[in-house]
């Protein structure tokens, strides 16, 4: 399995001859190195409905005929847009041909803002545990600190965890350090920082303080092989 980071919360996974995008916020994301018009995806996994996470999902999924896996209300909404979707919900898991997806809790919001500024409620936000080829990736999603992260760490052998550190909308570095300790991933990668001025953080300082597992700042486009 190959895992790469592409700015904000965008993660790409290559496994079982499939390309999987998580939260493909590409257009309008100056940190992202991907091109929404050419990027390939067989599957798109979404943690929640905010525009900086749904991103270019509709355009990419239509062009690539990609399967979109998302929390139920968000999946239903995207289905109305003509996408091929698989709805799931918190605590639920499903074994796909490309790997196993399980949604975990996340304490955040979830809504999609249309071009006319109307706001569509898109259900519960979540984190995603993805398992394939004997490896588990945990995309924690946008969330504040909550104690069940310890339970998630105890119940799963997590190889790499993508943890938000930006603050204001999610955990900041101090809470993310606690989360990293509880999750007990072999590798901890900070995400959801420096995209906007209000979430500016020092990822190098954060990973230097990670005590459980290896803290690692991934450069944009950098590939990690698990």
From TrEMBL:
Superkingdom of source: Bacteria
Metallo-beta-lactamase domain ranges (all copies): 7-192
InterPro entries given in the database record: Metallo-B-lactamas, RibonucZ/Hydroxyglut_hydro, UPF0173, UPF0173_UPF0282_UlaG_hydrolase
Entry keyword annotation includes Hydrolase: yes
Annotated Pfam families: Lactamase_B_2
Example GO molecular function: hydrolase activity
Keywords from the named record: Hydrolase
Family classification: Belongs to the UPF0173 family.
PANTHER family from the UniProt entry: UPF0173 METAL-DEPENDENT HYDROLASE MJ1163 (PTHR43546:SF3), UPF0173 METAL-DEPENDENT HYDROLASE MJ1163-RELATED (PTHR43546)
Name of the protein: UPF0173 metal-dependent hydrolase GCM10011398_01240
Species per Swiss-Prot/TrEMBL record: Virgibacillus oceani
